[in-house]
Amino acid sequence: MKVILSRKGFDSENGKTASPVMPDGAMLSMPIPSGDSVAFDYLGYKDKSYLKIWKELKPNCIDSSCCHLDPDIRMNNRCIPNIVRPGHPLHELPDDWQAIFGQVDAAETHLENQGVTIGDLFLFFGWFRQTEEVDGVLRYKRGSKDAHMLFGYLQIGDIIRGEDVKKYSWHPHSKYYQPNSNNTMYVASKKLVIDGEDLGIPGFGTFRYSDELVLTMKGQTKSRWELPDFFREVNISCHDANSFTPEGYFQTVRIGQEFVVSESDKVTNWAKSIILNNYDEMNKKV
User: Fold this and answer.
1) How much of the chain exceeds pLDDT 70, in percent?
2) CB 74 within 8 A of CB 157
3) Lesser CB count within 10 Å: N end or C end of the chain?
4) Is 214 helix (H, G, I), strand (E, B) or coil?
5) Alpha-carbon distance 43 to 49, whole Å?
6) 91 by DSSP, 3-state: which?
7) What are phi and psi of 140, to 5 degrees?
8) What angle do CA 53, 56, 60 make, to 5 degrees?
9) Which residues have a Cβ under 8 Å from the Cβ of 76 and sit 6 or more positions away?
10) What is the separation, in whole angstroms, between the first and last Cα of the chain?
């Protein structure tokens, strides 16, 4: 099983602020603004829409009505009562919903060249920061730092290409179909199975915060990671041995969405531990 570290959510160009670690520990990856998916105010967490959360964290944000909800791995973000337009089809979980991650163009070619296939495991990470609520308004917690953090996972159960992507019309990559395009959907497995062991949870999910999810080395900028030493024994696409610096951190590249880690029992066990220790039981249909 290959592990793929996949960068997603707000960044310095899209959203221009950190996704929030919510006060209760929920890892809320904010999907990038785009006109090809669902409206920010059709999504929410507890009593706030994604749009309201974004504006509270970054009051001068450039308003965007829609977002690119991908990976779509949080079951309950569409089903928030009384935020906006209850009963609207885009405000409800589709009957045929499945957890899906889509990729296309050069990023998809990279995954294909790395031999990513059914059974492999995406671990999603992004730019996060701790938050708190003051007088009902969400804000970044004083003293908290920007960091790259893991926020969810998807084990590949099926790979869909060509016209078949149109089947899931609610997913943004259903709209990317063109003849001869490499537009691809990675559909989650029903159950998470590692080394033949059914781990008793779905093949997708999000995490609840713990220090174990923080990739960034303490005291460093977010792209400088502290990885277990055994990562020096494997190949990580887009990187080489020089990515491990004399200062002890792993310097990630600025450009690149997916970093594919070569197969390793140690990396597999690390990923398994991350998921089992931090799986968010609250990420279920309501």
Assistant:
1) 93
2) no
3) C
4) strand
5) 6
6) helix
7) -70, 135
8) 120
9) 93, 282, 283, 284, 285, 286
10) 32
6 phi, psi to nearest 5 deg: -120, 120
Mean pLDDT, residues 48-69: 87
Mean per-residue pLDDT, 103-116? 97
pLDDT for 78 equals 78
Distance, in Å, from the CA atom of 174 to the CA atom of 141, rounded to the nearest integer, reads 38
Residue 153 makes CB contacts below 8 A (sequence gap 6+) with: 73, 121, 122, 123, 124, 192, 204, 205, 207, 271, 274, 275
- How far apart CA 74 and CA 162 sit, in angstroms, is 25
Query: Is residue 286 predicted with pLDDT exceeding 50?
Result: no
**Helices then strands, each counted (H, E), the chain:** 3, 17
Entry pTM: 0.94
